[in-house]
Write a structure and sequence with these properties.
With about 350 residues, the protein is of the alpha/beta class. It folds into 2 domains: about 110 residues, Immunoglobulin-like; about 220 residues, Class I glutamine amidotransferase (GATase) domain (Rossmann fold, 3-Layer(aba) Sandwich). The chain has 9 helices and 20 strands. The strands form 5 sheets. A 9-stranded mixed β-sheet has the order 9-8-10-11-20-19-18-14-15, with helices on both faces. Helix 6 links the parallel strand 10 and strand 11. The two termini are about 40 Å apart. The N terminus is likely disordered.
Length: about 350
């Protein structure tokens, strides 16, 4: 029979267990080397979960809780519960926030137990470079979708970014290059200097099969290199001119049938927690609009809404693909947005 123990029951159980119960029972000896190891796979999203609380209770011979073991899953969802008592069945609880997302029983003998990875997709073999910026944090999300081969390039240090983007061999080492919003652009993406060489390098990288994914303020990477793909707010020849989006939560319509199937829904709430995000007004024929919604904008004393504005788009160039999200990934870290990112970056089996 399965034993169900509420999250807050430990203190209550210990308090209610009488001194007589505890004193009359010899507590079983635990073994520091006896453990249960596994990875937290969300049962609904099928994504690895970091920072989940994983715990179990220890019972004496009278079935009274006398201790517990707990640990937080790491960046790839891995955990180890150690110092266990041998020859017991352990009920494992997995908690995210205030919600228990999973609960299961693990029989333990005298040897450490390593649990199979469950239903989550195996780790991706993709190699990803992340150009960091002031207003996003792609790198923090990738391990949750099984991407662990990540090179972080400091996009706020101009010389570092130049060294990376000027050499096509650097780009060629990676399947995907992600651009956080708020990296250095002047003299790199546009405005003379090495920008023409870098534009050619990124264009050639995509045409040879690479993926470029830009977000929020890094939209200039897409606009400057592929100027005919998108019609943005304002003057498309002026960098940053499209950055007029206003703070809001937008209910986006999922237009991509495959993405809608992966999400099991056809609408999605997107947080635009900071103003001046880029507003897309229209796209060329080869562009796929994955998410769209009504985009509020404010430009000086003027304001309005672009109805049905593209919010997440992609398009092919040669053998590769270019993605642009108008929202910040750092502000949308829930399971649904991780599913969107996984859909965009990891090829279907």
């Amino acid at each position: 029979m399965q034993r169900i123990v509420p999250v807050l029951s430990l203190a209550v159980a210990v308090a209610c267990g009488s001194e007589q119960n505890l004193s009359n029972n010899v507590l079983p000896a635990s073994d520091p080397d006896l453990s249960i190891s596994g990875r937290v796979c969300h049962p609904e999203t099928q994504l690895w979960v970091s920072n989940a609380l994983v715990y179990t209770h220890l019972y004496d011979l009278s079935d009274v809780v006398y201790d517990s073991r707990s640990v937080t899953s790491d960046e790839i969802g891995a955990y180890t519960l150690s110092d266990l008592v041998p020859n017991r069945d352990y009920e494992i609880y997995v908690q995210v926030g205030h919600e228990i997302i999973d609960k299961f029983i693990v029989p333990v003998g005298n040897e450490p137990v390593v649990l199979p990875p469950g239903g989550c997709a195996p780790d991706s073999e993709l190699s990803v470079a992340v150009v960091t910026g002031a207003y996003d944090d792609f790198a923090a999300l990738l391990s949750s979708i099984g991407i662990n081969s990540v090179k972080v390039v400091d996009g706020q240090v101009g010389s570092t970014l130049l060294d990376f983007l000027e050499d096509p061999a650097n780009l060629g080492q990676h399947d995907v290059v992600l651009f956080d919003g708020g990296h250095q652009e002047q003299g790199i993406i546009y405005g003379g200097g090495a920008s023409a060489t870098i534009q050619d390098n990124l264009r050639a990288y995509v045409r040879s099969g690479g993926v470029v994914y830009a977000t929020d303020w890094s939209y200039d990477v897409v606009e400057q290199i592929w100027p005919d793909a998108l019609e943005l707010f304002g003057d498309d020849t002026i960098p940053d001119d499209a950055q007029v989006g206003d703070t809001d939560t937008i209910t986006a319509e999922v237009l991509d049938p495959q993405l809608a199937s992966a999400l099991s829904k056809d609408t999605l709430d997107l947080s635009y927690d900071l103003p001046t995000w880029p507003v897309i007004e229209d796209t060329s024929a080869e562009v796929t609009i994955h998410l769209q919604g009504d985009a509020p904008w404010r430009d000086g004393l003027s304001s309005g809404t672009v109805p049905g504005a593209p919010l997440l788009v992609s398009f092919p160039d040669g053998d590769g693909r270019v993605w642009l999200s108008t929202y910040r990934s750092a502000a949308n870290q829930g399971d649904e947005m991780l599913e969107v990112l996984s859909y965009a970056l990891i090829p279907a089996p």
